Amino acid sequence: MNLIIVESPKKSKTLQQFLSSDFKIAATLGHIRDLPKKKLGIDVKKDFTPTYVIISGKKEAIKKLKSLQKKAKKTILATDPDREGEAIAWHTLKALAIGKNYERIVFHEITKDAVLNALEKPKKINMDLVDAQQARRILDRIVGYKLSPFLWRKITKGLSAGRVQSVALRLIVEREKEIKDFVPQEYWTIVALLFKTKGNEFEAILIKKDGKAIGKFGIKNKEQAEKILKDLKGAEYKIKSIEKKETKRNPLPPFTTSTLQQEAWQRLRFPAKMTMSIAQGLYEKGLITYHRTDAVNLSEQSLKAAQKFIISNFGKNYWAGSFRKFKTKSKLAQEAHEAIRPTYPEKTPEKIESDLDQVQFKLYDLIWKRFISCQMSQAIFDATKVDIQAKKYIFSANGQILKFDGFLKVYPMSFQETELPELKIKDKLSLKKLTPNQHFTQPPPRFTEATIVKELEKNGVGRPSTYASIISVIQERNYVKKNDKKQFYPTEIGFSVSDMLVEHFSKIVDINFTAKMEDNLDKIATGKKDWVPVLRSFYEPFSKNLNKKYKEVEKKKIITDKKCPKCGKNLVIRMGRFGRFYGCSGFPDCKHTQPFEQETLGIKCPKCNEGEILERRTKKGKIFYGCNKWPKCDFALWDKPTGEVCPKCGSFLVKDRLKKIKCSNSYCEFVKKKEKD
């Protein structure tokens, strides 16, 4: 018997389907060793030597793996093909005391061909990748364990700092400050509604005066707009030029981790963490290639399969005519890695819908369509640009009509169709209406799940595989929240933490410094740098500055805009036995306190019938839903209540992580039927 060790039972189940009985597949259930929870676990004086311990709850899994390993002829480590997977393989090697009698195999899709090919080309563990993962883990532990207590001392208990999360928080805080400081600038546009024959009106916008372009702020106020309208009184509108051309639109590349997270938010409103969880499930089922990748490469086999599918199902004119290959921008991305694509393009979303739950189907559908569309022909438009002379002014009108849909047949994207009437040069037009429009410049928008991922990637902060956890952590810490438009905004606590770090630990939250550190980690992964000097260059100035700041920095209060109802002074956020609360900044002269406000779901508590249900978090950051009258009322649920009651037993209906609506009573089997979107 040969033992193959993977991380996940789902992955092992998929592998077992096409491997013979000669192979026994077992799972580590994720990481099995890590730094200890209650102490630093790093000897900074001895080249940052880490002390690893078995993760709580993993002893049984290790015991089972050891038992199987003793009986095995060969032990094969088949964890994921990235730094994290390499680290899990190495920790497994150490925890099981396997020694040198092992093989390491890597595959980027869980298909029979990929796995059998990997078994024919076994390797040893890549210690450069392990060192890069170790260096990242140690860096993050040092920042978290050294800087968080500083925030407790100088702001309030229960706060935390992170090497990358603090940069993400800074981006959101700085965007909020830009919005608050933004001063709108007025500008005007003038639009003419014209026609050659009645019923065929079209709009044209003023673009030139005396042969010079009117810029965005060319018409600054109402007076200037009215002067132009006065000038145009009695003007003759005549076609000056017509330009017709065919324009083409190319399909987008297949997904990387980052672009998948962005598009899943834009189209499906899936948060990054949810997208990664669903993608993990699809990968483990053998339906998509590995979902943590910076590459847009595609295998020859997948390109041929796409070509065959497109020609068979849509016709030869819908295929690009040659294989469309995309260039990977990321310096780190390895050529062996592929983009995220379906492992079998012939498995259309409709064919496997019954094997997937609702959210898996939606994400697979998105991945499948993006891949197929990237090998389809361009979309072709007929575009027309018309310039219209009116005295010393020029108006412009644009038309666009879709001529051939190409890839848009599979992957729809927004575009505007505007049909202009048949026009000829020197044609005279009639004016129906001339409208001056007032506009004001808008502040930069708040970040969404998609745009914060894009910003992090643009600045080289973190890695696509870490974005989901970064976004999740800053929300769990109550540093940022989402508004009704699902945009991030900082809380008072978020402002205080970010301002403290920017003022006193500028390097930690400096985008360029963090990006350079990511670059160093990449160089460790490729064997170009040693991990110990990289850590030392970070730790020594950081430790020195931290010691200095403990002495220099005074405790800072989190001052809110809320006023004390007793004395009128601002309320501050404090930490007490039962969590955060508001207290008067005039303490001890004024001892007013009030509960820390949180938005409720607007659902009455079924237990006390006084309070309302709100989203809360455990000490470890796990979300649950409880009564806002706690500790007076201890009603709580893990899943989000919908506000409806179960038709069978009358308990709350809840929506679980996979958005399935079911009864909160574990003894009741009611589950709402899947609704079609």
Quick structural summary:
The chain has 16 helices and 28 strands. With 677 residues, it is α+β, with helices and mostly antiparallel strands.
CATH class type of the largest domain: Mainly Alpha
Using the coordinates shown, work out and report the CATH topology of the largest domain. Topoisomerase I, domain 2
Q: Helical percent range?
A: 25-40%
- Uncertain runs are none
**What Rg is obtained from the alpha carbons, in whole angstroms?**
30 Å
Largest sheet: 6 strands, antiparallel, barrel
Overall structural class, as computed from helix and strand content, comes to alpha+beta
CATH superfamily of the largest domain: Topoisomerase I, domain 2
Q: How are the strands of the largest sheet arranged? A: 9-10-14-13-12-15
Q: Could you tell me the mean pLDDT? A: 91
Domain count: 5
What does this structure look like?
The structure is a single chain. The protein is of the alpha+beta class. The chain folds into 5 domains: 2-125, Rossmann fold, CATH 3.40.50.140; 145-182 and 447-552, Topoisomerase I, domain 2; 186-250 and 379-440, Topoisomerase I, domain 3; 257-373, Orthogonal Bundle (Topoisomerase I, domain 4); 558-595, no CATH class. Strands 9-10-14-13-12-15 form a 6-stranded antiparallel beta barrel.
